[in-house]
């Protein structure tokens, strides 16, 4: 079936009433916007619904709108294995204390993607098994893809770490 | 006088082996380039005045010079004595095995019979196999003394591999001993001078093709080259047991690798391809093609031909090993062990038993 | 001084652990593999727990090549992001170029001339061939089959030379532009491609002979690094990694872009999802790419290679130097950047490693508000920890080779 945004929003709203799903426009994709609290339920619905079958995980990313709206937008991208179409699921979290539930138990690929969002934007994914920085190093201060992070900011040099005495990743 | 001749011969053999090992490095470079459509080592000419490329000069002189003048780095917390001892232990047996390798028939010079073999041992084959298995100590020591986990993994692999393949190698040697009825290498070569069915030279390979294949395979495994280069394979273990070696010590390891290639080639040649024998050339009667009257040749020419034939055969097997190295991918550790223990060992054993049975039947038939 | 102390304490810890371990054979060895390990390209580290040589657990650390691509893109104009995209997957830079341009064009809603679209497909496929040649050659080299690696490098070299002739650079091509291509191709372009394809075919034949029925090679590859379809989808694997599991998903077929809908090609799939399938799928894809290249060469239309659209496209040099309007237009586009309308788009295309996605947000100014790349091999690397579990160190090298991690793309 062809996925259109309005139709998709209606289905999601029916399946997960708390999501308050609304459609929005982006060229070429089905796209909905949902409440942050309903992310896990909506993603699970989209994945397991036999008509949609959005089983291919593509991406989790974020955009920082803290200057204009005080929010960070999270975008989940999935692809249908039935029609080959792509769906964008958008949600917003407060930029001051961004928290949202993880979907890494639904999609294994979200593990690293969420870590990257945490690394770059400081969004904390609750329930994530390994919420650490991924591309940057442990001692890095701040979250560079936030608009408030100055482009040319220099980070202090960190002392060399003895990998035997002080291993990283830390033992859990 | 005896010890003088022996000494000169030993010195000559060692020099030839060392030079050949260094030359093999060049052959490998150029050979691999040939196989892979590349140019290969091309930066050597003497002061730029030689009209032709002297690539081998590079490996003969520039490379050792470079390696031996480099910093000899020993990692902190390494066992310094073991670290220094390991390359020597690896190199020494690889070179001294050649003492028992006959490279020509005995010649009489000024009324004195000189055996073209540095040391004429009655137990030559045992001596060679005993020394060949010494090489593993160098590797184990190198890996252990380096205080590096990669080196340790490499040396564990190396010791397991070399011990397993020595078994198959030893058993195939036993079938050769049964065949020739002697441990003296010179005697083995002499008995290969006869003709089989009047046309075929009586080389060991025609009696024992299975033992030949096993010995060659196990030999390549002994020299730790692709497809058996697991102790040092760079995509897995960085450089395996010599990860922490540099400069002269590393050169020693490289040299011992190439010396082992020459050793294996020499062993295969001696046991299976008639050693210094030239087909249809008899040391006393001269050239005697089947069905023709023998043509007498001067003794010096015969000796030269025989020594040359040994050299050519050894070089051929060296090149064969190099060709194999650039053709095949490498095994995985457990696959290698399976091959050694589950395939080559039983085959070698069967071959040995079959050889023994056939020899018994032939003896009784007489 | 403190270093010595740390080392001492580590040694003491080790001895203590040694003394308390009941059975020395059951002891687990921890091993840091990389970043300065020959198989790790200097851009990755594996934190391994080993039982002998068997991998019990593997933790992957990426980010050694992080350059802040996404942050850098936000600082310049849209066109200034194009050179950065070259440096994503540096084994096939042209594909990144074109997919980024295609994404921006869709956001702007501009049409690309037909010739430019064909040229993009043609060059993308050439880049895909060179990427696969790199991956297969290096994969074979990691198994010790150096010769195959060198053969493939030789064919790749011809493609790089072609790229240098067309774009002026072997790797840092920056050939795409919003609206088309930077310039038209030289006259001997088709001949160079045909020569490269001819050599590639020969190389494929030789490599097939060297590897396909080689028992050592198949033993090393078959059944190694297995990944089920469900796992692959869940990890977000795309491209050859996903197709090796048997799912015929290819963006070029699922959501055709450029002129892929006019091309006749097949999507090769594997059966088991092991390393050998990954190898075979890439191998077969090279052949399919050659088919596409030949079709493109046959169908190539004439005409301009860049859209005639003063708002987004630089005027020709004749106008810049000859007329005041042209000069002003040039100045505005260079200094202020093109005014991409406010909005957002997620566009993805099939790069050599899988689905390369660009999520672009524009606020209507001349600079991108957000550029997000979905790097295919980032997700491949996240699946690696699962793929290698239970296999051995040699398999790690082989599996890692077939994941084809490209540092520039994975770490951005």
List keywords for this structure.
heterotrimer, B: 366 residues, mainly alpha, two-stranded antiparallel sheet, two-stranded antiparallel ribbon, 13 helices, 4% strand, globular, C: 412 residues, 3-stranded antiparallel sheet, disordered N terminus
Q: What fraction strand of chain A? A: 15-25%
Q: What is the general shape of chain A?
A: elongated
Structural class of chain A: alpha/beta
Q: Say how many strands of chain B there are.
A: 6
Q: What is the H/E string of chain A?
A: HEEHEEEEHE
What is the overall pLDDT average of chain A? Answer: 82
Please give the count of helices of chain A.
3
Largest sheet of chain B: 2 strands, antiparallel
Low-pLDDT segments, ≥5 res of chain A: none
Label the overall shape of chain B.
globular
Radius of gyration of chain A: 18 Å
Order of helices and strands of chain B: HHHEEHHHHEEHHHHEEHH
Class by helix and strand content of chain B?
Answer: mainly alpha
> Radius of gyration of chain B, Cα only, in angstroms?
22 Å
Number of domain modules of chain B: 1
How far apart are the first and last residues' alpha carbons of chain A, in Å? 46 Å
| Biggest β-sheet strands, sense, barrel of chain A | 5 strands, mixed
Enumerate how many helices of chain B there are, as a single number.
13
What is the overall pLDDT average of chain B?
A: 81
- Biggest sheet strand order of chain A reads 1-2-5-4-3
Number of strands of chain A: 7
